[in-house]
Structures
1.
Amino acid sequence: MARDIWFETVSIAQERARKRLPKSAYSSLISASEKGLTVADNVEAFGEIGFAPHVIGAHDKRDLSTTVMGQDVSLPVLISPTGVQAVHPDGEVAVARAAAARGTAMGLSSFASKPIEEVIAANPKLFFQIYWLGDRDAITARVERARAAGAVGLILTTDWSFSHGRDWGSPKIPEKMDLKTIVKMSPEVVTKPRWFLQWAKTMRPPTLAVPNQGAKGEPGPPFFQAYGEWMGTPPPTWEDVAWLREMWGGPFMLKGVIRVDDAKRAVDAGVSAISVSNHGGNNLDGTPASIRALPAIAEAVGEQVEVLLDGGIRRGSDVVKALALGARAVMIGRAYLWGLAAEGQPGVENVLDLMEGGIASALRGLGKASVHDLCPDDVLVPAGFTRTLGVPTERPEGADD
Ligand SMILES: Cc1cc2nc3c(=O)[nH]c(=O)nc-3n(C[C@H](O)[C@H](O)[C@H](O)COP(=O)(O)O)c2cc1C
C-alpha cells in the first residue's frame, strides 16, 4: 500500500522536514538571526489577533481569486523567493510545478539552485528576485536574462544586513559538495537514509552553485563567491531603485518594507508593489512582526501600490487576518520549504491546499463571499498590537527635550 503522505497542518510538515533532513539542512531552513526575536514575533503576533464570526450568513461559494502584479492567482498566497540549497533534488522546479498546479505565482531567488529557464518552464507566473549585487552592468545582465526567460515581474530585496550570529548556532555550509565533504557529512547523513536515497537516485550531489548569478547555460558561481561579492557591493540608494524599476519596465516589487516613510518613498520610486516584510526574521533581529507594521503601511500607500505581506504565515486563517488588515495577498516562505523537504512537489501542493482550505473556512465563519470583502471589522486587534514605524510622533506640549 502506498504511504499516506498527506499532512493536516504546516506544523506537521515542519516536524516531518526535521526528521527527514540532515541537521544542517534543516537548520538552514529555520535560519533567523541573533536571538530569534523577530522570527518568533512574526508567528506569535498572528495568535494575538482574534476573529469576529457571524452565527448565520455564511455563503455557500467563496471566491479566493485575485491578481498580483498583473497575474491572476487562484488564491491570495504566493511563493516567496528563498535561496534553498540541498533540501530536495527537484528544488525550485518542484515548487514551481506545485504553484502552477494550484494556480499561483512564484518568486524565484537569485540564490536559487535551479536555472530560471527550467523553473519558468514549470510555472510561467514567475517573478525573478534580485539582490543588489555587483555594478549596474552586472545587474542589467541578470535582469535581461530573466526578461529573455519570460519572467513576468521583478522583486528587489534590499533588507539584508549581513548579521551572521545565531544563539542556537549556524549550520556549517560547505564550500562545495565533493567526495571529501560528503564523507565529512556522513555521520549526519547516515541517520537520514530517505533524504540520502533521494539524492543518490539522481547520481549528482546537491550543487552549491547559484546558476542565476551567472550567464545562461553556465553553472554559475559558487554560493560563497556570490555572497562575498554581494557583501562587497555598495548598498543601493532610492535613485538605484528608480533606475532598476525603469530599466525593467514591468511589474516591480520592493520586498522588505517595514516603515511608512520607506513605503512612501517606494511609491515615489515608481514601484508597483511592496511586501511588508522583515525577511522572515533573517534581517535585523528586533524588527517587529510584519503583521504589526501592515495596518499603518496599508493605510498610507494601499491606494497607490499593491501591498503584500510576508512573515509568519502558517495557516489560511493567518492569510485572512493579513487581508483584513489591508494586504492584497501574502507570500509564504518556510511553510512551503517544509512541505518541499517533507514530500517534494506534493508536499508544497499540500501546503497550498491547507492555505486554501483555511481561507475558505475563515471566510465561511466571517460570512464573506470573497477575499475582497474582508475588512478590519472582521478581526479583533488588541490595544497596542500595531507598530507604526517611520511616522514622526507629535510631541505632547511641555514634553522635556
Ligand atoms: C531559508 C530561507 C531563505 C530565504 N532566501 C531568500 C532569498 O533568497 N531572497 C529573498 O528575497 N528572501 C529570502 N527569504 C525570505 C522569504 O522570502 C520570506 O520573506 C520569509 O521566509 C517569510 O517568512 P516565513 O518564512 O515566516 O513565511 C528566505 C527565507 C528563508 C527562511
Note: Residues 345-366 form the longest helix (22 residues).
2.
Amino acid sequence: MFGVSSLSLRGMTLREAVTSASEAEFDVFEFVPQVFGSIDTYTCRVRQELRGMFENFELVTIHSSDIELEKGVPADLTSEDALLREKSINKYLDYLELALDVGARMITFHPAPRDKIVTCTPDPVPYLEFAEIALEFIGTEDIYLGYEFFDVELIHTIGNPRFGLLFDAGHAASLFEGEATAGVLKLLDNALLATIEVHLHGVDFSGSGFKIDHVPFSRSRAIDCGQVFRLLTDTGFAGPLVFEIGIFEKNRASENLKHSIEARNEMLAKMEMS
Ligand SMILES: [Zn+2]
C-alpha cells in the first residue's frame, strides 16, 4: 500500500490534497491535520465530511509531527515539566479522537520534537505511560497506533499488537556515516516485526557532506530506496509505505506529488521485475 503525506502537499487545501492523492491512485493518505489548520477547526461537520472523503482510500493514517501546544511551545510527551507533559498527552488524545471520528485506522506520533528522535530512549517511562493511556482510549476500536522512532525494544515492552513503530528509512540513513543503505537495511530488518508503517524519502549529501533528507528518489545518493522496498516486499510487509518527499518546500505541492508518483511507479516496477 503506497501513500503520500500531507506534508508534501502544503499549500493545497485539504480537499485539494485528498482529491489529488486519490486521482494519483494512492491507496493511502497520510493526513497531518495541522498542515491544514488547527485541530480546533475540525468541527463535527468537518469530521463527518472527512470520513466520507477518506472512503476513497484503502487506509488513512494520521501523523502528528510538529504539534504545538501554543505558538512556539512544541508538544513533548517526554518533557520533564509535568504540566507540559500532561498538556501534551491531552493534545495527542485530541488527535486520537479526530482519527476515530474521521475513520482513520492508523495514527502515528512523534513522541517529542524532531531533535529528540532517538534509537534508544533514555527514559522509557513517559512513552510507556502514553501508550497505556492511548490504548485504553481506543478500547476495542479498529485502529493501530505507533511511535516514529527506532526504539524497537520499547515497542516490545509495550507488548500490544495494536501499538507499533513507524520506521522512517530516510531518518535512519542519518544515523550512519556516508552511503547508508546497508546500515538502514540492518536496522529495518531488526525492526520489522514491530513496524506498522514505513516513511520513505530520498537522502542526498550536501556540499559539506551532511545528509539532506526528504529529497526526490532521483537525487538519493545516500540511500537506495529500491533496496529498502525490496526488503519490505521480500519479508511480506503489509503496512503502508508513505512517501515524504519535499516536505520542507513550501508551495511545491504539485512538484512533490509528481515526485511521489514517480517514486511509487519506480517501486511498482521493481515489484514486477521480481
Ligand atoms: Zn517521517
Note: Residues 148, 168, 199, 244 surround zinc ion (CB under 6 Å).
